[in-house]
Amino acid sequence: MNDGAIVLLLVAAAGLMGGNQLVAIAAAVLLLIYAAAPAPILSWIGQYSVQAGILLMTIGLLSPFAAGKIGLGEVVSTLLAPPGVVAVLIGAVASYLGFGGLNLMMVRPEVMVGLVVGSILGVSLLGGIPTGPLVAAGFTALLYRLLKVS
Prior knowledge:
Helix content is 84%, strand content 0%. By secondary structure, it is an all-alpha fold.
C-alpha cells in the first residue's frame, strides 16, 4: 500500500467520523479503484473527474428549468430585483474564485488534504454542509496571493 492509499484511508475514516459522507464515499471509491483497476484509470479519473463533476452539478442546477418549475418571467424578475443582482455579483466572484481554486489544485494538489480536513471540521464542528472543494480552493488561492504564500 502506497502513501496515497494510506492518505485516502485516513480521509475516508475522517469523513465517516466527521459526518461528511461524500468525502468518505469518494475516498473509498478511489481506494477500490486503486486496488482493482490499472493505473491508467486513476490517471483518467484525475484528468476528467473535475470537469465531469462540474457538468453534473450544472445539470442539476439547471434541471428546474427543464422541469418547468422556473420560467423566463421568473428569471427576468429575479435578475432585476436587488437579491438577483447580488446573486449575479456573488456568482461572478464565486466563478472567479473557482477558476483560481482549480489552478491551485492542479499546481499544488496536496492542498486538497487541508480542504478536506477543513470540510470535515466545518461539517462536524460548525454544523456546515459538505460543499465542493473548488471555491474553497479558490478562497485559499486568493489568500495565498494576498499573503504571498508560495
